């Protein structure tokens, strides 16, 4: 059993809540204090760019945990941490008060990048962002979406469904290509045009106000795009301010080991803000917020870490669900299962005879199996993967090519 009595978590999102759950289910009976800068109880962020923008869900509908959950933890809203003293195991809040913990876990997420300060330029990260944006998405409104990644593409799809005139601008010709591969990325991108969205391939040079509207200058385009509202979906910057000021190692996120320990033995980091030193990239997905919390809890409690799973994400747009496991850029060959013309199909990425990535449109079962196969040292048979009749669960019974790590 753990010698850690009091765990102090900074941040009130999915990673923080998941850590509290994992600590309790792992047997931790000591205090858990969660300090959140927001003045709401934790809510789920993915619906912000989907059902919330569509007006189908309110804040109560997307709350992460029911009222009784808060009996198990000391959860404090409106509690922004201003500084961290790792050696003393102490944080100081913006109001000057101090809170201590045997271990401190940073779960501060990220801050969206924004291309301009005009009030008509919107980002989507917190409830208030969605609340501000939603009334602007009315029929006929001219909406320019900057960035066609996950949040940009979802917002563009929602705006189009609400009857806005949408222009989607991205410097890459076919967004998401490295993550999901060309077959899926091409179909996904084509769906924007099918939904009446004007897609522009170029970088945004400037966003300027011209009376009632905004002018968005795009590279290679003679006339700027005229918009009533701009939505920026150009990524986040991990919120590393506390860690940096406290002298922890930071490099595109708070750098952590496989147990989510930072460079200071008493401080951990999880979720969007953390970057594992043993992995090539930082993850900014819902599933990672949960799995990183589960692994950190195991480290804190001195227990075996749960099995390492490949990263999984989803994105909903134009009535379809995209899902991905791993990154297609890691694949040497790609195998298509199903027919792109049907709208629902899967692409598997294979390297050195094993599955390293998968992406699918509306094929949840394929992805369910892929989540168990990717990252395992199991040999995969290309013909079996390609054949829609193969039960992918059978591939899990193959013999390992090497001993599992
Ligand atoms: C609009 C939107 C749609 C998304 N859709 C998908 C999707 O479809 N699929 C998918 O896989 N992922 C999606 N994601 C990503 C997913 O939601 C995030 O990866 C996840 O929420 C990260 O959780 P987190 O707890 O690490 O960070 P966050 O949820 O950002 O939580 C961080 C918390 O820390 C608080 N904080 C920051 N600094 C301080 C401080 N100094 N003191 C106290 N508190 C502080 C913040 O206020 C915030 O409450 C989406 C994200 C957004 C924004």
The residue-averaged pLDDT reads 94
CATH superfamily of the largest domain: FAD/NAD(P)-binding domain
Q: Assign the CATH topology of the largest domain.
A: FAD/NAD(P)-binding domain
Question: Which quaternary structure do these chains form?
Answer: single chain
Spatial gap, N to C terminus = 26 Å
CATH class of the largest domain: Alpha Beta
Q: Which secondary-structure class do the elements indicate?
A: alpha/beta
Model regions low in confidence, pLDDT < 50 over at least 5 residues: none
Tell me about the biggest sheet? Answer: 5 strands, parallel
Radius of gyration: 22 Å
Categorize the overall geometry: globular
Instruction: Specify the helix fraction band.
Output: 10-25%
The set of bound ligands, ions and cofactors reads: flavin-adenine dinucleotide
Q: What is the domain total for the residues?
A: 3
Q: Based on the coordinates given, report the CATH architecture of the largest domain.
A: 3-Layer(bba) Sandwich
| Order of the strands making up the biggest sheet | 3-2-1-7-19
The counted number of beta strands is 25
Number of DSSP helical runs: 9
């Amino acid at each position: 059993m753990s010698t850690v009595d009091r765990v102090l978590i900074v941040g009130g999102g999915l990673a923080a809540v998941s850590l509290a759950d994992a600590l309790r289910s792992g047997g931790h009976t000591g205090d858990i204090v969660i300090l959140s800068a927001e003045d709401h109880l934790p809510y789920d962020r993915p619906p912000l760019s989907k059902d919330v923008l569509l007006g189908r869900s309110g804040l109560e509908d997307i709350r992460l945990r029911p009222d009784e959950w808060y009996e198990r933890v000391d959860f404090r809203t409106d509690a922004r941490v201003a500084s961290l003293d790792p050696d003393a195991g102490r944080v100081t809040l913006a109001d000057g008060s101090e809170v201590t913990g045997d271990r401190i876990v940073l779960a501060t997420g990220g801050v969206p990048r924004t291309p301009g300060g005009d009030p008509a330029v919107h980002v989507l990260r917190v409830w208030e962002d969605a609340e501000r944006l939603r009334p602007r998405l009315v029929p006929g409104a001219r909406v320019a979406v900057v960035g066609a990644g996950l949040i940009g593409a979802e917002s563009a799809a929602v705006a189009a469904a609400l009857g806005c005139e949408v222009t989607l601008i991205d410097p890459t010709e076919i967004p998401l290509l490295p993550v999901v591969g060309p077959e899926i990325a091409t179909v996904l991108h084509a769906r924007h045009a099918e939904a009446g969205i004007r897609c522009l391939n170029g970088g945004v040079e400037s966003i300027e106000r011209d009376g009632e509207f905004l002018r968005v200058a795009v590279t290679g385009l003679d006339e700027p795009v005229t918009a009533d509202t701009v939505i920026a979906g150009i990524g986040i910057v991990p919120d590393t301010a506390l860690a940096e000021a406290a002298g922890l190692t930071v490099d595109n996120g708070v750098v952590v080991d496989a147990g989510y320990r930072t460079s200071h033995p008493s401080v951990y980091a999880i979720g969007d803000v953390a970057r594992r030193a043993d992995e090539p990239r930082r993850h900014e997905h819902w599933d990672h917020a949960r799995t990183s919390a589960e692994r950190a809890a195991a480290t804190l409690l001195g227990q075996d870490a749960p099995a390492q799973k490949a990263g999984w994400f989803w994105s909903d747009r134009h009535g379809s669900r995209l899902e991905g496991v791993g990154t297609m850029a890691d694949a040497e060959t790609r195998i298509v299962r199903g027919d792109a013309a049907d709208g629902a199909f899967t692409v598997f990425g294979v390297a050195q005879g094993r599955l390293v990535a998968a992406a699918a449109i509306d094929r949840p079962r394929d992805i369910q199996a892929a989540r168990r196969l990717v990252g395992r040292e199991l040999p995969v048979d290309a013909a079996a993967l390609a054949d829609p009749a193969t039960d992918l669960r059978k591939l899990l019974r193959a013999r390992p090519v090497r001993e599992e790590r």
